[in-house]
Amino acid sequence: MALLDPSTLRRCMHKDPSFPLGTVHRLTLESSVLKGNLLGDPIDRIIDVYVPRGHDGRGLPLLVDLVGFTAGGPIHTNWKNFGENAPERLDRLIASGAMPPCVVAFPDCFTKLGGNQYINSAAMGRWDDFLLQEAVPFVEARFGCGGTGKRGCFGKSSGGYGAMVHALLHPDFWSAAASHSGDVGFDLLFFGDFPNVLRALATAEGSIQKWIEKFYAAPKPKDSDVHILMILAMAATYDPDPSAYLGIRLPVTQDTCELIPERWANFLKWDPLTLVEKHGEGLKKLKALYIDCGDIDQYNLVYGSRRMHRRLEQLGVPHVYDEFPDNHSSVDYRMDKSLPILAKALSA
What we know:
The structure is a single chain. By secondary structure, this protein is of the alpha/beta class. The chain has helices at residues 6-13, 86-95, 127-143, 158-169, 186-190, 194-202, 208-217, 223-238, 261-268, 272-279, 301-315, 335-347, and strands at residues 23-30, 44-51, 62-66, 103-107, 120-121, 125-126, 151-156, 176-180, 288-294, 320-324. It has 2 domains: 18-184 and 271-347, Rossmann fold; 188-268, no CATH class. Helix 6 (194-202) crosses helix 8 (223-238).
């Protein structure tokens, strides 16, 4: 039996092989800003880069995919059963004329604590700096794409949070952003999880270190334990304590689960609903801003999304807001709406 070359194999596994296939380049970047990070995460980072058929990247807009928690960017370039991965989606959208050609980068920002919120943290690492100072310039130099006025970011869940926060903090760097079911409204999103975290820690003598060591020693982590790890990662992101194990300290008392005001305040200052009060005017510089959320989102994000939409309207920030009949899970199909909006705006 003859072996298939990679391009033929990809076409065979393509949901619809009739569309011209773009090329996915796998690059590796040795990060300087991640050196010495408290989690001990690797500084060599994979960045997959999609370039559409018939282009070498030069002169095209650049979109950067910020993936959700528990994932790294290259997961979106992997083959996907019963559906499309991101390159296949891009092939279809570009070939059909739904969106103009663009380069799309998929940086690996996974961490030992399971993911990323794409901001700088004394515990998690300098992920904001990684994107702005290293990953994006690296891709732009290699492919001649992007540049001022032609850069956008998008993501879902934690990635949607990253896209929104980057748009708020860096509207002179990014010119378009899309947040799919992004973290917003921290009072509804996080507080209900703290009792579950304390119950989990109680199984490890109340020790964050012992619980995490047990998590990594397990032959099969439970989904519920992954969620506990995520909340610990949020603590290391928004209120890090470099003197604590992996920088993690909780914003609640361990015996009575009462909020510790100064620690919880550190969480809230990173809520997009807080950031918009100081940085919202900068969003008017964007060429496109897209926000959506499922109307039965199981993490209560639809309520925070509605608050953000209302506040942006009050501030006069142009944006597209869309609620759709679904929950938080498996909603990559929403990129069919957001990516054409971003790519058209950046191509104008």
